[in-house]
Design a protein that fits this description.
single chain; FAD/NAD(P)-binding domain
Length: about 375
């Protein structure tokens, strides 16, 4: 099979990959972006979903092709399009790709190997790509978290994760129970109800979150500090890192966007705060009879786990199939990265959610994509020069 040769291989064409590709093009780097653009957003997020971020969370490291610029081209203001819908953001990402003349190779990489000269990626077609440096910008699609203590209680085939439960039309007339109590759980509940689900139950261990506007204004300046000092977060004492994490948690996890409130105050939607599942069995008639911690029993047809994502690079197929994992320093399933996002394998850079341990919780959000692109891009320009 044929082999492509490039200086820089970018794996993943979501927000982090697109931002880096844009900056690599600006720097004149010989790069190849591989992946279906915004594939996770298209396949694993539902129609009708809205983003929690505002228009300032754009993708351009140069600050030119922003969401504001995109709306202005349409004769609108950012206020006209907020809250941002998934469909709007996908349109913006496509426009951004055109503006930056990014031409990804829309294929899947099945394995990544280290070679004497750098890296070799193998495509599903059997073709290979040789590169001096590689950047994993894979997002969190491989890291859906299904807590073992919950899964052990549920009959096989009775549940799915929000990552895969996005075709709500198929649940029309069904009774659904969602496990989880953050934004995604509540938004899935609203969308399920609006798609015709007969009943929707939300069960979570903590008190009900507040319907309040999240304050993200302090996040941007912290992320922007990385332009001149990429390692500032990693040098903080643990207590200060924890304080940032708790503040972000309070905004992102303890609040639900107020535009959801009226959509949830509907007959057929029941919220069970301070509860958890203690048993579940399938009755002879096919019902799932779910026993909650207060003794109530809820009969449903489908259980959906809104239990988030947990990084473990061992679960990333292209690494698991290759020869890199034994050489890769990890801690708690995360890669150990230097101040430029370079892993212990020279020439391998890792960003997006797997970078949160070393660079802060911001990297679970799109706001860090453009700063990540600048830091990695500048280092790539240095090492491949």
């Amino acid at each position: 099979m044929a082999e492509h040769d490039v200086d820089v291989l970018i794996l993943g064409a979501g927000p982090y990959g697109l931002a880096l590709a844009a900056y690599a093009g600006h720097l004149g780097l010989d790069y190849l972006l591989v992946g279906e653009p915004m594939a996770f957003w298209k396949a694993n997020m539902p129609d009708g979903m809205y983003l929690r971020s505002a228009s300032d969370w754009h993708l351009d490291p140069l600050g030119q092709d922003t969401i504001g610029a995109y709306t202005a081209e349409q004769g609108k203001t950012t206020r006209d399009v907020e809250p941002l819908s998934r469909s709007f953001y996908l349109d913006y990402a496509e426009w951004f790709q055109r503006r930056k003349q990014i031409e990804p190779l829309p294929e899947l990489i099945t394995r990544l190997d280290r070679t004497d000269g750098g890296f070799r990626a193998t495509l599903t077609s059997g073709e290979t790509i040789a590169a001096r440096a590689a950047v994993l910008a894979m997002g969190f699609g491989s890291f859906s978290h299904v807590p073992a203590d919950i899964a052990s209680l549920l009959p096989p085939g009775s549940y799915g994760h929000t990552r895969d439960e996005v075709a709500f039309a198929g649940l029309n007339g069904q009774r659904c129970l969602i496990v989880g109590g953050r934004q995604s759980a509540y938004e899935w509940a609203a969308l399920l109800h609006e798609a015709g689900a007969a009943e929707v139950h939300i069960v979570h261990r903590h008190p009900a979150p507040a319907f309040a506007v999240a304050d993200w204004s302090w996040v941007g300046p912290l992320v922007d500090r990385m332009a001149d000092d990429p390692g500032w977060y990693r040098r903080l004492p643990g207590a200060e890192q924890d304080a940032i994490g708790q503040r972000l948690y309070a905004e992102g996890r303890l609040k639900i966007e107020p535009w959801l409130q009226s959509r949830l105050q509907q007959d057929g939607i029941t919220i069970w705060p301070n509860e958890h599942i203690v048993a579940c069995e399938r009755s002879p008639d096919g019902d799932l009879r779910v026993t909650l911690s207060d003794g109530d029993v809820v009969a449903v047809d489908r259980i959906i786990l809104a239990t988030g994502y947990k990084v473990d690079l061992n679960r990333l197929p292209l690494l698991a199939n290759g020869n890199i994992l034994p050489c890769l320093s990890m801690r708690n399933g995360f890669p150990v990265l230097d101040e430029h996002f370079q892993a212990s394998v020279p020439g391998l850079f890792i960003t997006s959610m797997p970078a949160t341990q070393d660079f802060g919780p911001f990297f679970a959000f799109t706001i860090a994509a453009r700063m990540s692109a600048r830091v990695i891009g500048d280092e790539l320009a240095r090492i491949v020069d």
